[in-house]
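User: For my dataset I need records formatted as: sequence, then structure tokens, nothing else. Please produce one.
Assistant:
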Amino acid sequence: MKETVLNKFEEVFGDVEGVKVFFAPGRVNLIGEHTDYNGGHVFPCALTIGTYGAARVRQDKKLRFYSMNFEQLGVIESSLEDMKPEKEADWTNYPKGVMWAFEKKGFQIPKGMDILLNGNIPNGSGLSSSASVEVLTGYILREFFGFDVSNQDLALIGQYSENNFNGVNCGIMDQFAIAMGKKEHAIFLDTADLSYTYAPVKLKGAKLVIACSNKKRGLGDSKYNERRSECETALAELQKVADIKGLGDLTEEQFEEYKTAIADPVRIKRAKHAVYENQRTVKAVAALQADDIAEFGRLMNASHVSLRDDYEVTGIELDTLVEEAWKVEGVIGSRMTGAGFGGCTVSLVQDEAIDRFIDQVGKAYLAKIGYAADFYVVEIGDGPCTL
């Protein structure tokens, strides 16, 4: 891939003098969905697929961006002196947002850049192509300009830029998983205080398979912000009767005791998901540490049911992928992953069942939905790096 991006860089920008090549992974969340902005735990891992970037520093303030994933858009230009989100800037609002955020945090970017990207994460799939681009951009800025920021800072700056420049009210999980990724480990992250531990993922005769629904979704214009606001209202109602900072502070028993404080039945369901999903995540990591893969799979399945029935973020595409997965012998667990409303599922599948899984689920999905899903057998990889 390094040669591919260098060759394309030369073709687009004329030469490769002063160019370096970088990589930032995508991520998948194994369990703990819609808990990250509710003060709960998440359990994501970085993947070996992600975003490759070739970049160099210019002698002026100009920014030139090119993506091999959106070649029809050509080179998109802007300037460090005019950093605001623009519709016509398209995907470049993500790297521009990070540059804007660096400057907001007191890191002045002295010169413009030429940046070419090529991602092998499916766009709009829910595997965090946007967060991958954000962390990659931050990593590139640190490498070229020597900014004193840690990988954890890169995650926080990426989240800040997405919240404040791109207007998506995302939590910290995506950027954190990408910036802090570790090969063959998932990150057990408490989003309330950013304390985390790495948990080895030993699947022993099984692999992670991502199924991409190919239903495109945009977080900013989806019901994501609506769900977030429902949880914030429910939290405020619960705080009148319980001393809590986030929904993640409650056990299932405490929630059942206090839930009558929530005035609206829909908000009760939303809050229930946040509380129960957080506890499922804690139990799932304990199961993995005890080598109980079957229990881990059972909790994945329960997570999907809760996302479908209580949080209502799945939709027919994701439900079809998961429900068909559950029918295949050798599937240990399957659930939607990411924000929902399209995107992907993640399934834990025994090695000998992978081909059957892809064939059976793929055929059933095509027959019901009318277009095909894509499948990726993935491995857990490291965080961002220079190639």
